[in-house]
């Protein structure tokens, strides 16, 4: 392919496996391929992966040496948990002294219900750490294996401080050819019960994911590709396949993460709600300040230490079928045309709908009746949400979900006649029900993340994005957009993902030494995960309320000449975006400072009260990156532009001026610092000393005359 460097993204879904080829320099999508997922092949989904790689390469004349990045996302771990298709886990709990009793209880997490009637089965043995010998370990493992355990988890109180005993137990299990993992491998946080539970879920996935990892790695080698195969994580990054073998839990929800990761990188959203709408369900996630919202995932209703994208799923989508009763439409979904084994009414020809009549079908035993349309010729189709959206012209021409308008009208006229209303009124009723169900979740997420409803954009992705999002935006008064290449947005997200790693530790009053240690640790970890060290960016966060010290690192697998999908937006356009984000007139919004990637805008407002006698000046601050994404916005915030060499005087004085003193203590302001490509979040710092210790570590390689921006607020 003319020596182009290519990125390949593969998304292994429950029904289809998609692949895209992306130009590594321009990020243009060069090719899109879709084929059924090979669940029933003797090599499993790996067979489909090798087939789709070969198709992409042969159809586009791509040579193995042209491929600089290859990654895949998968729903395999998620599906395994939903279906209860997981390994039985034996837990060797450990602790001693006063902690022995609580450790015995907290390492015994019992069986975990994954879905109705589906359990992750666990067995438990406890050893007092003082009595830990080769004989006691062997005895415990023997008993667990005899009970039916397939994987061993070693979990000891305070193992995050010293994992030696967990490592001994893991080695004893592995020496017998048994998979094993330890609590310290999954999380560095205290909280033995949650750490053990997270390790158990991870362990239950190891055998299946190990098999898939080996097959997919072999498949890539067979294709002659020398680039390291990367796998999508649940937080929107990628990691090496070797890391998947140790921590398969990180691939849980990775299929869902890929869609919003793609939207984030491809669409440059500041604040928004992303909807990945398929045939059966919609996955909803939040983007705020250009970042995807992340939280601790739950399994079977129990908290884990797995940090994943906050994605909420609802059974409303393009293929959702219609329920009727009492002469009106009563519900949309949860069953879809796919589950009923029927085709959509809007994707057939009108010749298949001659003399239409309304029928009813119950897709699964115990289901209510859903509406179908039957022709005199014996054809039967589902009435769907996609049909309703097409009839009401919510789906643009050329969109993936655009259907045959003639057949759509025939089907919905039949339903309207059956209910004593027009086809449009019937379609509108169906759309309104779907919007009401989805908005209940959307409103909760808007509340949870304190989003500004006047600024957010609804973004549609997936094959049915245009079925739901335009209609919902019009009814609820939001802006909206359909993502470019929406049906492939997940696959694009995989193809453009960065390597990511995160470490969390329980640290009370983090010191400069703690910060340097965790920084060195995350660097080592992300390089192990496949990142080129020269590209790695590290962010340190301190959660002082929960005593958590967190390091997040992102990097790429290869040195790049520019950022992914980077584009520069003219300053006048940046100002208009800033004014909209701040809710202020454009003519009162000014560019106050700029440094590296960052542009700081301010708009001042005079608020009057007490019949105009009291006046208060409000300062609205917005910081945008060069691509026009609003990364920070706040009212009653203050800013300072300074050089690095003035950090100890000008910046220190600025910080002092905005510190509140009381008899008990000094409260430093919440602080962000911007320079070059970096946005440094220092809002977790409790003291000036703590703040400066991180700032000095982060800027130690910065030249003295480098420009920096600081924004503070209380």
Mind explaining what this structure looks like?
With 714 residues, the chain is of the alpha+beta class. The protein folds into 4 domains: 105 residues, Rossmann fold, CATH 3.40.50; 234 residues, Nucleotidyltransferase, domain 5 (2-Layer Sandwich); 58 residues; 143 residues, no CATH class. Helices cover 32% and strands 32% of the residues. Strand 13 and strand 14 form a beta hairpin. The longest helix is centred in the first third of the chain and has 31 residues. It is globular. The mean pLDDT is 89.
Helices and strands, with pairings:
Blueprint: E1 6-12, E2 16-23, E3 29-36, H1 45-59, E4 67-74, H2 76-83, E5 89-95, H3 100-106, E6 112-115, E7 118-120, E8 122-128, H4 134-147, E9 151-156, H5 164-174, E10 179-182, H6 183-186, H7 192-222, E11 229-232, E12 238-240, H8 241-246, H9 254-267, E13 272-277, E14 282-288, E15 291-292, E16 294-299, E17 302-309, E18 312-314, E19 320-325, E20 328-336, H10 337-340, E21 343-344, E22 357-361, E23 370-374, E24 380-382, H11 385-391, H12 405-419, H13 423-448, E25 457-461, H14 465-476, E26 479-482, H15 489-495, E27 499-506, H16 512-528, E28 537-543, E29 548-555, H17 571-582, E30 589-595, E31 598-609, E32 614-625, E33 630-635, E34 638-643, H18 647-657, E35 660-661, E36 666-667, E37 670-675, E38 678-681, H19 688-698, E39 707-713
Helix pairs in contact: 1-7, 9-15, 11-12, 11-13, 11-14, 12-13, 13-14
